[in-house]
């Protein structure tokens, strides 16, 4: 899913590689990601990029025999502009595979199955959930701009009377949930688990999943980097490394 409207870092105007040969020639795979979405991509206490997606990207770069360069990009600029313009070689940021996006960019095979859910204040004081256990009319639901959560809200919730509040920054939406200014924020299911680890007693999921979705690695249309990424993904799964990454970043402990 995800996120903001502007670049968080000035990007080079020089086009990046669009093929395996070009990546190997320059010796660097440039990854675009919005590092605001733990446990998939975020900055650690030391300021370094880390997370499930980052480790997947590192594996792709390793198999290509090159270094990984991570460039932070707000989600609104990441998908699809950073990819289609050649500012980055690939994008990996919990990006949902959709038919509309697949017309513009090329996706790898799905690497993670997720779902959109309601994130509410712990204790769910407004008794909010899915399927509905309270009316939608008058409820304010938060979404992050240009995410599949926004699409779900517009399709499912707005016609039922909900007011949709759009945030450039996911953290701002969480702050409004915590303060009781909105009833719920739509986010990806693994985010709830991560929030409960990092901020115990503050947030929870309300009700069942709203919609299932698959994440994919993103490349310029028809790039042979797709095949390289799929090869890495297959290797990770066959070797058990993929499960180890799930256990490290996502599986609740």
TrEMBL record:
Residues 1-17 form the signal peptide. Its main location: other. Residues 28-252 form the Ionotropic glutamate receptor C-terminal domain. PROSITE patterns: SBP_BACTERIAL_3. Residues 28-253 form the Solute-binding protein family 3/N-terminal domain. CDD domains: PBP2_peptides_like. InterPro entries: Iontro_rcpt_C (IPR001320), SBP_3_CS (IPR018313), Solute-binding_3/MltF_N (IPR001638). It is found in: Cell envelope. Keywords: Signal. The keyword Signal applies. The keyword Calcium does not apply. Belongs to the bacterial solute-binding protein 3 family. This is ABC transporter substrate-binding protein.
